[in-house]
Write a structure and sequence with these properties.
CATH superfamily of the largest domain: FAD/NAD(P)-binding domain
Distance between the termini: 59 Å
CATH class of the largest domain: Alpha Beta
Shape: globular
Number of helices: 7
Structural class: alpha/beta
Strand content: 25-35%
CATH topology of the largest domain: FAD/NAD(P)-binding domain
Radius of gyration: 22 Å
Helix content: 10-25%
Largest sheet: 7 strands, mixed
CATH architecture of the largest domain: 3-Layer(bba) Sandwich
Number of strands: 27
C-alpha cells in the first residue's frame, strides 16, 4: 500500500485550488484523483463567460478558468490520476480506487481533501407522472451534449426549474436555434442569480412562470408536450390551472446535491440541510484529517468562492500534515436561525482561529429591507441592513478574532435575519 501526505478526491476547480494551496504551504507529496478523462470538472462544459472576476480580476469562460488552475498544478509538478474512480474512503484514511492501469488498488493518506462536487436531482426525485419518452434531460446533461459533444438536443424546449444551470441553458438553447417556450419554477422565487435572470431570460423574452410545475408529460417515443399547473403555498398543484405546452424537449434544473457517498463512508458527520459534511473553521470534517471544500460541502453560486474556500482547505490540510497549528478543546457552535437556512462552517475553534473567518450562508426565502445579525451567546454584535436577500444569492459575514476577546467562554454564535 502506497502512502501520500495529501490525497485530493476530485480534479475540478475545488480540487485544483486545494492542491495548489497545499503545495504553496510546503507539502510536496500530493496526489489528485479524478474520475473523468481530463481535469477541470464541470467548468469544461460551462463555455459561457462570467467566471474569474473575483479570483483573476477578469471575465473568463469556464474552460479558461479551469485552464488557469490546471496550468498552476502542472507548474508545481503536482501528480494526478485521470479515469480513476474512488470507490470508498475508510475512517483510517485508506482510499480504495480503480482504474485501467492499476486495477483495484488501495492507498493511504495522512490527510484527505474531499472535492467531489455535486450532482443534479434526476426526474425520479420529482414524481412527475407520464411515460418515459426521449427528450427529457437534466440541464447539466444537455449542457454537456451541446457544448462538448456538439449535439442538438431539441427544437421546442420547456425548462423546469430556474436554478443557474437552467437559466444559462435557456439562453444556450436559444442561441442554438431552439425555441424556449417557458421556464417554470415551483417556488415563488427564482433559485438563480439575478444577473442570470436578466441576461438569460429577460434579454431573450423567455417567460418565467413562478409557482408553477410540470404535472404531466405527453408522448411515448418522444416528448410531445407537458402540462403545467400553478401550485399553492404547500407546493401542491391547483386544479383548474393546468395549461398544455407543446414541446419536444424537457430540461430539468431542479436542484443540486453534494456528492457525499464517500464522505459518509469515511464517517464524516453530514448536515441535514446542506447534505454536505459538517466542518469547523479549518474546513475539517468531524473525522480528523479529512477536509471538505467546494460544492461537495455546500452548493456555491460563484466558482471564485469555491476556489477561495478550497485554498483554505488545502492550507489547513498542509498544516495538519506538518502538525502545525493547535486544535482547541472547545468549539463554539455556529447556528442558523431566523430565515437563515444553514452556515458553513458550523463550528469555530475560538482559541486557534485565524484573525478573521468568513461564514457563508443562504436564506430560506426572499426578504426585502431585512437585517443580517450575528449574536454571541445572546448578545448582538453585528447588524447590517440588506435591501434584498434571496436564496439564489449566497451571503457571508466575517467573524474577527479581536471581537471574540470579550467572550472567552463563548458557546453559541447565531447568524439570523431580523426585521429591525
Amino acid at each position: 500500500m502506497t502512502e501520500h501526505d495529501i490525497v485530493i478526491v476530485g480534479g475540478g476547480p475545488a480540487g485544483l485550488s486545494a492542491a495548489v494551496a497545499a503545495r504553496k504551504a510546503g507539502i510536496t507529496d500530493i496526489l489528485i484523483l479524478e474520475r473523468d478523462s481530463f481535469l477541470g470538472g464541470i467548468l469544461n462544459q460551462c463555455i459561457h463567460n462570467g467566471f474569474g472576476l473575483h479570483t483573476f480580476k477578469e471575465e473568463l469562460t469556464g474552460p479558461e478558468y479551469a485552464a488557469r488552475y490546471i496550468e498552476m498544478v502542472k507548474e508545481h509538478n503536482i501528480p494526478f490520476l485521470l479515469n480513476t474512480m474512488v470507490l470508498s474512503i475508510s475512517p483510517r484514511k485508506e482510499i480504495t480506487m480503480v482504474n485501467r492501469e492499476n486495477g483495484l488498488s488501495v492507498i493511504k493518506a495522512r490527510a484527505i481533501i474531499l472535492a467531489m462536487g455535486c450532482r443534479e436531482r434526476p426526474r425520479g426525485a420529482l414524481n412527475i407522472p407520464g411515460y418515459r419518452p426521449a427528450g427529457i434531460y437534466s440541464a447539466g446533461t444537455a449542457q454537456r451534449l451541446v457544448n462538448m459533444e456538439g449535439k442538438k438536443v431539441g427544437r421546442e424546449v420547456v425548462i423546469l426549474g430556474s436554478g443557474d444551470i437552467g437559466l444559462i441553458m435557456a439562453r444556450r438553447m436559444t442561441l442554438e436555434g431552439a425555441r424556449v417556450k417557458v421556464v417554470a419554477e415551483l417556488m415563488p422565487y427564482s433559485g438563480g442569480l439575478k444577473r442570470n435572470i436578466v441576461q438569460c431570460l429577460d434579454d431573450y423574452a423567455i417567460p418565467l412562470k413562478l409557482s408553477h410545475t410540470v404535472v404531466d408529460i405527453e408522448g411515448k417515443e418522444r416528448v410531445t408536450g407537458v402540462t403545467l399547473a400553478k401550485v399553492d403555498e404547500d407546493r401542491k398543484p391547483i386544479k383548474g390551472t393546468e395549461t398544455f405546452v407543446s414541446c419536444d424537449t424537457l430540461l430539468l434544473s431542479v436542484g443540486l446535491v453534494p456528492e457525499n457517498e464517500l464522505s459518509k463512508g469515511a464517517g464524516a458527520a453530514i448536515s441535514p440541510v446542506t447534505s454536505g459534511p459538517v466542518v469547523d473553521d479549518r474546513l475539517e470534517t468531524s473525522r480528523e484529517g479529512i477536509f471538505a471544500c467546494g460544492n461537495v460541502l455546500h452548493v456555491h453560486d460563484l466558482v471564485d468562492y469555491v476556489s477561495e474556500e478550497a485554498s483554505m482547505a488545502g492550507t489547513s490540510a498542509a498544516n495538519y500534515v506538518k502538525a502545525e497549528g493547535k486544535k482547541g478543546s472547545s468549539f463554539a457552535d455556529i447556528k442558523a436561525q431566523g430565515g437563515v437556512r444553514y452556515t458553513v462552517p458550523q463550528k469555530l475553534d475560538i482559541e486557534n482561529m485565524k484573525d478573521q473567518v468568513t461564514v457563508r450562508f443562504r436564506v430560506s426565502d426572499v426578504y426585502k429591507d431585512r437585517y443580517i445579525s450575528v449574536y454571541y451567546d445572546g448578545t448582538r454584535v453585528f447588524h447590517k441592513k440588506k435591501r434584498v436577500l434571496a436564496p439564489g444569492e449566497m451571503e457571508q459575514v466575517v467573524l474577527k478574532k479581536e471581537s471574540l476577546k470579550e467572550y472567552p467562554d463563548l458557546k453559541k454564535i447565531v447568524v439570523c435575519t431580523e426585521v429591525e
